[in-house]
């Protein structure tokens, strides 16, 4: 660890983050909703705090190294998660305590989208804006984290993409070219947001709502400015626009980057993970549609426009966005659980979506196949391949490690939730949703997390952070070996 | 595949199994309960069927090879599972259909112990005897399967024990020394059963019940001759005797074999899996006891003799025996789910217990630790060790493959159960219990499986067989590569 370098980065981070309080402050002033003071106070607080951290070490020329990387990345979400809760705590007009504010902020920055709020439609406009912006910023952070930083840290097999990455990935030093990669990715991210907002607006959303939902669509975040989420607009066209942009955001941003730089669709067409993801989407949509039709026939119901509810809901879960239109939790028990498992699989690596990631499942599947072949041909040397490329054994090890840690953490957090008094379905679905950065769950927390106590909310914060940081980024900080010189 | 050799083995298997119909027939005659005819008809049927298979190929001198091994092992449980249901189908006095009979038989032979029966206390005596015997025979089969056959087939990392095994394990031919190993193991198994029965009897059980429960204790099966299971006897002494013998049966029988041959306790004392298993038992007992005491204090209850319920129930689940004394499913939600997860971990490898097996979890844990170290020291070569021995990377791969297959199968079977209309808790707990060969579950099937339809019962049969055959033994039969020449 180089404390100087870490301290410098944290200081800069807080100062930059403080600036993000100005747009909601502006919204508050324009809307005259009385929250401007809270945002401005937070701005000053964070700016001063960041400055105090930065000033003493501003001359330090030390570079960040791998080990510092884990610390800085973890701090990014933990410290900014706490910092993001400040306006909600300061603003007395919004009567919830620190735990609720922290939950909302962490849920925003990790692009989870679970909420403790009810009556969102009648909240001050600036707070409705602020939540959406938190997710959009979180999504930005994730893209850089996933594409430029995690592969370098070797987290959970994400070094799979090391060789082909447009970044500093073969370099032991962290800073040199991250800025350049980040800038290109942010242009793509911003561009997608603008196009998505225009499409929503053209389809009939109000301008404010169009931008607000573009923010959380591209971030696969799922926060909405309405309690009814996307169901508020009751429009198949808007839902299909959301479907398109949720899928784009759940694809590997390295592919978008290469397609843009090379002016070619080749990177998309030749990606095995993308093909697998779209195949799974197709199969699950067919299953859900079939399930709903059978259910309707059996109960002599005629649900209105089942087809777009099915498509929208599956894509919303599979991309771990978590918007809802239908009351999916009153569907027959099979379907919501299927949707939860699909969310646990998640989207593609290097995207804003959460979950295990399709490429990891693909890799586990391939290695499962190899194990069976090995049983039949014990002497054969059989490489595991993704596409045409054999995968390094060490990467496979890392993916197994991640998978086991995910399952273990799932069981552990679920038991803690149960011990805190939640029922089995609530505990199971909340942990699944939190770890996958999905948002919606089942049981007592199907609509929101307002009804559970402080304990389960804090456990959810841990789950969301662990999920977002691919577990090991946080886990490694708790090992003695990390702190040993 | 050598069809001749396989056919010969199956024929012999059926003829040997037919003989096991004679003891229950004898019980039926002595008790004059009217079921003798069903057992004798089954005896004749299976003897003739086995003979017809065996006769044409009795001269064949072909040896079984690895690939035939998978087929024979799978057939053992599938064919005998079906064969074992015959007396229950034939006997009209027991009014259940083929699916129920199959469920009961498979549950018996796989030592799962889930039942579709209610009113067990008032069943004909010979049927009460027959169920217990099925489990005892299943347990015998498992010991040989686990110690002598699976390691040779390379299933799920069980070749971990290849080097130290007292068997034909380095030989590509299956038959030569299996008989010798099997005989020694069966002496141990029989010896433990006799001692256990004497202990139960000395503690106050009737002679019949003592033998019957010794059968299913040593098999870690959990069938009982009473609806109330071990709770029927309401005796802390009997429960503690059961605890001792359940633990012994959940330990690695290779250790018992070596300890017996060497006249030494060294094999037990130096086994890392045994130490880990007992440690986990201790921790979970403490958690359950603590949980119950807090629950009682909070609800101003004074449950009678909590301590022995806690110890008995934890050991019963951790060894995947599945006896019950307390109504564990009305304990606060945290505890039954904890017990289920403990059962999913299961007992030690090469024992009669089910689940993932402690040694596999230990291995996954060690490799998880290695992955974290690799993040901090990317260049280091770090071996994974169990005890002092580094573990072959190929074995680790096999264990990961098994773990992933287990999780995937769990999710798949749970979704199928939900699609068949079971609620979430029932589906989750039934699949967990079936795959771990545990027996008890939660929700609608907390007491027994009488209330669910034929579909879920057949799914349970699949789960129980998959769990017992360590998944891959069955899975490999469904791959084209297996059948290719
Ligand atoms: K989300
Ligand atoms: K059992």
Automatic annotation (TrEMBL), chains A, B:
Segments spanning the bilayer are: 12-32, 38-57, 69-90, 136-161, 184-203, 236-255, 275-298, 337-365, 398-419, 458-483
Q: Where, subcellularly, is it found?
A: Cell inner membrane
InterPro entries, per database record: Cat_transpt (IPR003445), TrkH (IPR004772)
Please tell me whether the keyword Membrane is annotated for this protein: yes
Cellular compartments per GO CC: plasma membrane
Residues recorded as binding K(+), renumbered to this chain, are 111-112, 221, 320-321, 437-438
Cite the GO molecular-function annotations of the record. Answer: metal ion binding; potassium:chloride symporter activity
- The record's principal subcellular location, in a coarse class, is membrane
Which key words are in the record?
A: Cell inner membrane, Cell membrane, Ion transport, Membrane, Metal-binding, Potassium, Potassium transport, Transmembrane, Transmembrane helix, Transport
Could you tell me the membrane topology recorded for this protein?
A: Multi-pass membrane protein
Keyword Ribosomal protein in record: no
Q: What does this chain do? A: Low-affinity potassium transport system. Interacts with Trk system potassium uptake protein TrkA.
Family membership, please give it: Belongs to the TrkH potassium transport family.
**What protein name does the entry list?**
Trk system potassium uptake protein
Q: What is the lineage of its organism?
A: Bacteria, Pseudomonadati, Pseudomonadota, Gammaproteobacteria, Chromatiales
């Amino acid at each position: 660890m180089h404390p100087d370098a870490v301290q410098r980065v944290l200081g800069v981070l807080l100062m930059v983050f403080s600036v993000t309080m100005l747009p909601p402050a502006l919204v508050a002033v324009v809307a005259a909703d009385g929250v401007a003071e809270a945002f401005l106070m937070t701005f000053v607080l964070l700016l001063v705090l960041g400055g105090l951290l930065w000033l003493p070490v501003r001359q330090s020329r030390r570079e960040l190294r791998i080990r510092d990387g884990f610390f800085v990345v973890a701090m990014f979400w933990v410290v900014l998660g706490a910092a993001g809760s400040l306006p909600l705590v300061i603003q007395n007009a919004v009567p919830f305590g620190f735990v609720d504010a922290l939950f909302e902020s962490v849920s925003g920055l990790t692009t989870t989208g679970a909420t403790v709020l009810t009556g969102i439609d009648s909240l001050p406009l600036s707070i409705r804006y602020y939540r959406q912006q938190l997710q959009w910023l979180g999504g930005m952070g994730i893209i850089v984290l996933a594409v430029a930083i995690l592969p370098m840290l070797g987290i959970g097999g994400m070094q799979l993409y090391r060789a082909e990455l447009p970044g500093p990935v073969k370099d032991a030093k962290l800073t040199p070219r991250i800025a350049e990669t980040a800038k290109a990715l942010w242009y793509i991210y911003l561009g997608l947001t603008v196009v998505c907002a225009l499409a929503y607006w053209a389809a009939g959303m109000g301008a404010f709502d169009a931008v607000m939902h573009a923010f959380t669509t591209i971030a696969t975040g799922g926060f909405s400015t309405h309690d009814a989420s996307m169901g508020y607009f009751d429009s198949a066209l808007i839902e299909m626009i959301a479907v398109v942009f949720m899928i784009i955001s759940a694809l590997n941003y390295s592919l978008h980057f290469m397609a843009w730089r090379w002016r070619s669709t080749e990177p998309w067409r030749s990606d095995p993970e993308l093909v697998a993801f779209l195949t799974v989407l197709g199969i699950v949509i067919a299953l859900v549609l079939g399930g709903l039709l059978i259910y309707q026939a059996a109960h002599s119901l005629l649900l209105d426009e089942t087809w777009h509810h099915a498509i929208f809901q599956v894509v919303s879960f599979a991309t771990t966005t978590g918007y809802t239109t239908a009351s999916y939790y009153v569907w027959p028990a099979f379907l919501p659980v299927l949707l939860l498992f699909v969310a646990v699989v998640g989207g593609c690596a290097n995207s804003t979506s959460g979950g295990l990631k399709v490429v990891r499942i693909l890799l586990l599947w391939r290695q499962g196949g190899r194990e069976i072949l090995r049983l039949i041909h014990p002497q054969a040397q059989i490489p595991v391949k993704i596409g045409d490329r054999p995968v390094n054994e060490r990467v496979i090890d890392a993916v197994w490690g991640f998978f086991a840690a995910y399952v273990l953490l799932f069981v552990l957090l679920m038991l803690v939730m149960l011990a805190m008094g939640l029922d089995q379905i609530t505990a199971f679905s909340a942990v699944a949703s939190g770890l996958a950065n999905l948002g919606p769950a089942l049981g007592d927390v199907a609509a929101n997390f307002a009804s559970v106590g402080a304990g389960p909310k804090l456990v959810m914060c841990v789950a969301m952070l662990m999920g977002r940081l691919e577990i090991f980024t946080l886990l490694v900080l708790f090992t003695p070996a990390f702190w040993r010189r």
